[in-house]
Amino acid sequence: MTIDFIVNDQMVQLDINPSDMLLDVLREKLHLTSARRGCGNGECGACTVLVDGMPVNSCMYLCVRVAGKRVLTLEGLGTPGKLELLQENFIKTGALQCGFCGSGMILSALALLRRNPNPTEMEIREGISGNLCRCSGYVKIIEAIKLTAAVGRDGAANG
Q1: Inter-CA distances, 33 with 61, 102, 159, Å
Q2: Would you put residue 142 in left (φ > 0), alpha (ψ -120 to 50) or beta?
Q3: How far apart are CA 25 and CA 141, in angstroms?
Q4: In the chain, at which end, N or C, are there fewer CB atoms within 10 A of the end residue's CB?
Q5: Where do the H-state alpha helices sit in the chain?
Q6: Which residues constitute the domain of residue 34?
Q7: Which of 76, 100, 134 is the last residue of a domain?
């Protein structure tokens, strides 16, 4: 079957199998590899992308469900020469270590900050709760999100 959707602000039309998972289509057909295959059952969040602004586990999300929708992967957020503030703050605070969870973690944090530009620490913890990190213990990740929210409160753009 053929579906149309927008990925990283680009309209795409793809022939897919109705049983194809979004993660596989992103990685294999569109060569967008920031979403990672971790657990394969929606528990780790390494495959998180945003669909119409909401975080989804792309390893468990049928690609047919994105027809007519907007998908954002990390490749669509900032550029190597001009990162979004949230990405900069993840680097600045040392929140990314091995990098495996980074894409999903950043996209979950972005969705949280778009819904709630001034989250409490508990709201941040809840907002990233679907993303597992085995390296950091979450302290620096939470610090990066708090820093991004604080800059937004001070009137600067926060991506």
Answers
A1: 16, 12, 22
A2: alpha
A3: 29
A4: N
A5: 22-24, 85-92, 102-115, 121-127, 139-153
A6: 2-76
A7: 76
Provide CB contacts within 8 A for 158, sequence distance 6+: 85, 86, 113, 117, 148, 149, 151, 152
Indicate the burial class of 40 (C-beta count within 10 angstroms; 0-12, 13-18, 19 or more): middle
Residue 78: both structure tokens together:
């900032």
Beta strand 54-57 with 70-72 is unpaired
Task: List pLDDT tens digits, range 65-99.
Answer: 999 999 999 999 998 899 999 999 999 999 988 88
Binned at pLDDT 50, 70 and 90, residue 153 comes out as low
CB 95 within 8 Å of CB 136: yes
For the chain, how many residues are written?
Answer: 159
What residues have CB less than 8 Å from 30, skipping those under 6 apart? 7, 12, 14
Helix-strand-coil split of the chain, %, nearest 5: 35, 15, 45
Considering Cα of 137, then 140, then 141, then 142, what sign does the dihedral take? positive
What does the alpha-carbon distance between residue 147 and residue 10 come to, in Å, rounded to a whole number?
30
Whole-number pLDDT of residue 155: 44
Measured from the Cβ of residue 92, the count of other Cβ atoms closer than 10 Å reads 14
